Amino acid sequence: MTIFPSALTLKDLQESDSADPLATVRDRFVLPEAGVYFCGNSLGPLPRATKGRVHEVLRQQWGQDLIRSWTRHDWIDMPLRMGDKIGRIIGALPGEVAVADSTSINLFKLLAAALRLRPGRNVLLAEEGTFPTDLYMMQGLVDLLGGSYEIRIVAREALLSGQAFDPDVALACLSHVQFRDGALHDVEAMTALARDAGALVLWDLAHSAGAMPLHLHRWKVDLAVGCGYKYLNGGPGAPAFLYVAKHLQQSLEQPLWGWLGHAEPFALEEAYRPADGIRRTLCGTPPILSLAALEAGCDLFLEVDLEQVGKKGRRLGHLFLQLVDETLEGLGIEVACPRETSLERQLRGSQVCLRHPDAFPIVQALIERGIAGDFRAPDVLRFGLSPLILRYADLWQAVASLREVLETRAWDQPHFHCRGAVT
Amino acid sequence: MTIFPSALTLKDLQESDSADPLATVRDRFVLPEAGVYFCGNSLGPLPRATKGRVHEVLRQQWGQDLIRSWTRHDWIDMPLRMGDKIGRIIGALPGEVAVADSTSINLFKLLAAALRLRPGRNVLLAEEGTFPTDLYMMQGLVDLLGGSYEIRIVAREALLSGQAFDPDVALACLSHVQFRDGALHDVEAMTALARDAGALVLWDLAHSAGAMPLHLHRWKVDLAVGCGYKYLNGGPGAPAFLYVAKHLQQSLEQPLWGWLGHAEPFALEEAYRPADGIRRTLCGTPPILSLAALEAGCDLFLEVDLEQVGKKGRRLGHLFLQLVDETLEGLGIEVACPRETSLERQLRGSQVCLRHPDAFPIVQALIERGIAGDFRAPDVLRFGLSPLILRYADLWQAVASLREVLETRAWDQPHFHCRGAVT
B350 at the A interface (CB within 8 A)? Predict the structure, then answer.
């Protein structure tokens, strides 16, 4: 299989689709009839199985069995059962992942726990350009704790060189894939580098879980959180997940002491005693409808080969950039994501990011043409590449539409300039 | 309408049903064909409208409109739109309620915020026998903050007399209705008493919202949280709500700084700036499927007169206790909830609690007979009285079944003694 064909044609892309072992997975999703959906990294599309799952929870479990469902349908263990399913997707051991709350809340739990695990160290590292909620949750925690904690926002180079990890650093909270430019960290190497400096890394897997094979256990990852509604296709605002390596679980102290994290939730004791294992990261009552939808999304991943998913994501990115190079020259577009120069070293998540001063209205003009990408301030056009739903030929349609928009200055209409809410 | 008829007959109860202005609301729910459901205070039943709402979110909003739904279907403002609906149910002003996260997480936000609002005071009060998660969240916060904070668990008498409110008390976190014995606080009086002592009360409305009229604004309540899956019928693990009185909102600092609580969530700024108003209590991305289900539950309350709901709940309780008195004498049952002696002063939430040394197997034997109540350790049989779904005649069936179980010692079989999970 050629990774870099020289002058790409639509026929080449169609042949890639014919040879794609994941080609039929697309049929398991509800997708717009026309157009191409490049926002699976913002909100994954609806799996066809989801309706049935949710309907069954409504009809039988909630509707008929009511509170008996806590045991009869094992609602009570759903956060951990779902955690183990996600664990298989991210390369964790059974009992290392729980599904609960939102990514933000899970960040708070693990940030606070990480500081406890590194007493005497007062610095929290974040990377320039990281996703704001990761920063905000750090800021909120530090503000709450008072005292001498300090958040340092550092350049990627200072992380990669190890320079950022001085003896005061308790933890770094890093995105595996940078949301804006798609740059990818080497999780294993960075975790080892931090470990050698006595620090923990809390990985945010929001933009990688479900898009590429992850090996949290093999990579010796300590702590991670991730999102259910992006590549895992769990639905808008789906519950998030968190991962704690086995060896840290018994010493992990997270501060959100809800009844579900208690050693005996039904004993209704006066004093909190954390449950053993990953269960101590749970807090309140689990949202069953949302968990059922998330389960339908995650189950699809258990049927596919994640190595193939990762390969397809990379190849989609290569070919997208090749089309950009070959067809958009002189139209004011710059490539804003890392380019990979070898198959051995992956530098980019499953997304392509382009830059243009008029990125916002251009994205709107593309959306009008059925090409759903998204805008990231100040000037980035972002295209998420969900390997389960995209066809290689979709890239042709996308770049052809982009060329048409650029050549005709189609974006230069007032209604494309109105800013609305997009996540 | 007689509140205390002298010797109650089934016919009396059936006549009460005929005269009940809420009688037809029951038809808006999916309910088991036989039996009586007394667990609406644990998991409210499925409204018939819910399936359609959830289906529409799946089919059109998520399935077809995908990320455009954040604006097109106003997903982004759903937490506040839903908050205003719940605000009408609990007597809050528009903009005083948000729907978000779980009750436990919302407790954490407002507990931490309340301590900030009362600097120099270091005591958090809780009531003996309060719901454990309320205590646990206090314990987790105090453990995180370190320093000199102290949780004092005090008897109801010490709260009512005001004795508990010494000058060190920053806040009291109190359940409006005690989950185990159904005892009801006078919210207005207790809030005023605390206010006079310079303290705040954070009310947990889990067992009252949707079961009786609440008047948070009129009662001058400062802070409150509540649950979506009990009397509000939002579905298992439905999102929770929180209330912050207008006058406190601009000085409120809650520590869970997620992107959705930012003044400009889409500007992706590096520094957190809390949004104005109740929006600053939001944290992560809202769970849209669960919010849609909760909306279907709450919308039903906007069609009924909450004064009638409250009256029916009280009358169901009176009549239940009267039947217990008249028919269960000498069978080892004690009444474990407050008895009301006047119509003016309400002492009991919308539930009846009985006590028996073998409460656990008795509850199981009742469940086998279709009478779904629940057990609360160590010896309480709890019957939630959801005014929207219960018929007066259901009380007859329940107490008759209970008498049969007690008279025949039907509970005295090994399989009724196996402890399982019930929430």
Answer: no
How many C-alpha atoms does B347 have within 13 Å on its Cβ side? 13
Torsion angle, CA of A297/A299/A300/A301, rounded to 10 degrees?
100
Q: Which residues of A are less than 8 Å from B59 in CB distance?
A: 51
Enter the tokens of residue A52. 């049935």
Strand stretches in A219-330, DSSP E: 223-226, 241-244
Q: Do B237 and A377 touch (CB under 8 A)?
A: no
SS3 A193: helix
Q: Percent of chain A at pLDDT above 90?
A: 91
Q: Is B108 on the interface with A (CB under 8 A)?
A: yes
Asked if B290 lies within 8 A of A287 by C-beta distance, the reply is yes
B33 CB-near residues (< 8 Å, 6+ apart): none
Active site residue A382: yes
* Residue B160 one-letter amino acid: L
Catalytic option among B108, B229, B320, B392: B229
Sheet containing B97-99: give its strands across: B97-99, B241-244, B223-226, B200-204, B169-175, B123-127, B150-154
The segments of chain B whose pLDDT lies below 50 read 1-5, 421-423
* Nearest Cα to Cα of residue A178 among A207, A215, A209, A217: A207
A126 bridge partner residues: A153, A173
A50 phi, psi to nearest 5 deg: -65, -45
What is the C-alpha to C-alpha distance for residues B150 and A419, in angstroms, rounded to an integer?
A: 48
Distance (Å, rounded) from C-alpha A378 to C-alpha B415? Answer: 65
Backbone torsion region of residue A92, taken as left when φ is above 0, otherwise alpha when ψ lies between -120 and 50, otherwise beta: beta
**Residue B11 identity:** K
- The DSSP H or E segment spanning B242 is strand B241-244
List Cβ neighbours of A33 (8 Å cut-off, separation of 6 or more).
Answer: none
DSSP-derived 3-state class of residue A225: strand
The pLDDT confidence band at residue A107, using thresholds 50, 70 and 90, is very high
Cis peptide, bond prior to residue A378, ω within 30 of zero:
yes
Residue A212 near residue A306, CB atoms below 8 Å = yes
A155 in B contact zone (CB under 8 Å): no
Residue A355 burial by CB count (10 A; 0-12/13-18/19+): exposed, middle or buried? Answer: middle
The CB-based long-range contact list for B143-148 (8 Å cut-off, 24+ gap) reads B143/A253, B143/A255, B143/A257, B144/A112, B144/A144, B144/A145, B144/A255, B145/A144, B145/A145, B145/B115, B147/B122, B148/B122
Q: Reduced to 3 states, what is the DSSP secondary structure of residue A411?
A: coil
- Cβ neighbours of residue B196 under 8 Å, at least 6 residues apart? B162
pLDDT value for B420: 52
DSSP string, A109-132: HHHHHHHHHSTT--EEEEETT--H
Question: What is the full DSSP assignment across B343-404?
Answer: SSS--B-SEEEEE-TTHHHHHHHHHHTTEE-EEETTTEEEEE--TTT--HHHHHHHHHHHHH
Q: Which two tokens stand for residue A410?
A: 């189609």
Amino acid letter, residue A241 = F
Place of tokens 């739990």: A109
Q: What is the DSSP string of B141-192?
A: HHHHH-TT-EEEEE-HHHHHTSTT--TTEEEEEEESB-TTT-BB--HHHHHH
Per-residue pLDDT tens over the stretch A354-371: 999 999 999 999 999 999
Residue labelled with tokens 């199985």: A49
Q: What is the DSSP secondary structure assignment for residue B88, as one 8-state letter?
A: H
Please give the pLDDT value at position B419. 67
For A294-332, the pLDDT digits (tens) are 999 999 999 999 999 999 999 999 999 999 999 999 999
**A420 interaction partners in chain B (CB closer than 8 Å):** 71
Buried b (16+ CB within 10 A) or exposed e, A184-221: bbebeebbebbeeeebbbbbbbbbbbbbbbbebbebeb
